[in-house]
Amino acid sequence: MASVDPLVSVLQRPNVRVEDVAILIAREANPLLDDHAMRRGLDGLGAEALIRRGLRSTPERDGRILAELLFEELGFEGERDDYYNPYNSYLDKVMLRRKGIPISLSVLTMAVGERAGMDVEGVGFPGHFLVRVGGPDGVYQDPFHGGELLDGQGLRRLAAQFLGAEMAMHPSYLDPVDCLTITIRMLANLKNAHRRQGDYARAMLACDHLVELTQAPEHRRDRGLLAHALRTYGAASEDLAAYLEARPDAKDAHAIGLALEEAREQADQVLH
Predict the structure, then answer these.
(1) Do 156 and 236 lie in a common domain?
(2) 18 and 105 fall within a common domain
(3) How many structural domains does the chain have?
(4) In Å, how far are 129, 231, 236, 269 from 83, measured between CA atoms?
(5) How far is Cα of residue 223 from the mean position of the Cα atoms in its chain?
(6) What is the pLDDT averaged over residues 172-186?
(7) 36: Cβ–Cβ under 8 A, 6 or more apart, which residues?
(8) Residues 6 or more apart from 151 whose CB is under 8 A from it?
(9) Could you read off the pLDDT of 128-137 as tens digits, one per residue?
(10) 77 in any annotated domain
(11) pLDDT tens digits, one per residue of 27-68
(12) CA 155 to mean position of chain CA atoms
């Protein structure tokens, strides 16, 4: 039976692309979104990259073509002044404003590169999403910083920035990740961005997807806390209780227990 969650259904399709998920997430936030226009825009960028690429290329040249087209000429850039603005995580807004965070700019780069016949994969580098161009022997590219190509020294510098200088660079940080992993990371960013703005309803929508995709107790906890903030105490009680049942020894068990007790009291008052 197909899942009722549209994101789960999309991810179950053969040959699903990350842009399919990104467009669906954007359309949930903006029901009037013209996803066909978005795809035509990506098609146009991909066609231009293909023309520049020609019949033969190298991973480094492919990376430079993408950097030149998207970041130098079209002006896509990492948003530094308003990093946690949810617009930075919605692909339609990224294409319109030409600003984004590492993962959204990476999704754009992947979509354009694929249309140009390039092998562009997402890399779940800790704290800072990247892409790899050209397969296992290819080059690593940082869309957030203008499509910069990163050598070993650049990658170690990035690891020190996000993990601390004392942490060694682990080879697994450079492994490409699948569409599901990218989707979960996009949704986690959206949940946190909306929550920071006090938009608990939109944060909860992202959390609903995370629960369906991962079944992780931590996402049920977060959804329960969001439900609590929205004063939907019955739903909050159910999720918070499920978290404590799955994680009775969690460090935050006491705090969550207090929130659960309050939610139950509030739910009882509503019923009576």
Answers:
(1) no
(2) yes
(3) 2
(4) 14, 29, 29, 40
(5) 18
(6) 95
(7) none
(8) none
(9) 999 999 999 9
(10) yes
(11) 999 999 999 999 999 999 999 999 999 888 999 999 999 999
(12) 21
